Amino acid sequence: MTLGYYPALSLAAARTLHDDYPGLLAQGIDPKKLEQEKKTTDSLFINVATKWFAIKKTSGISEVHADDIWRSLEKNVFPVIGQAPVSNFWGAVHFRGGSIPSGGD
Asked: CB-based contacts of 48: which residues, under 8 Å, 6+ apart?
């Protein structure tokens, strides 16, 4: 089982993960399945959008604008696609012919 790849996963982090696995196994938890569930949860649109928004808020936009963005996501986007994996949308972009628009086209 692969824990990750250097340099994305440091040696110290890999050792910590390795040390945690016997405890998980003793509790009847499959570490590989647990990691897959985490990846699945992390890839949900709502979770990706939350991480994006945390970065966006610190990019110099006003508090009012940030609140407006988040309200729009909560009201219009999350109810429809919040629980969908982002990979669903990437495939649709490729299927429709190419690339993500740059905004200036």
From this structure: 42, 86
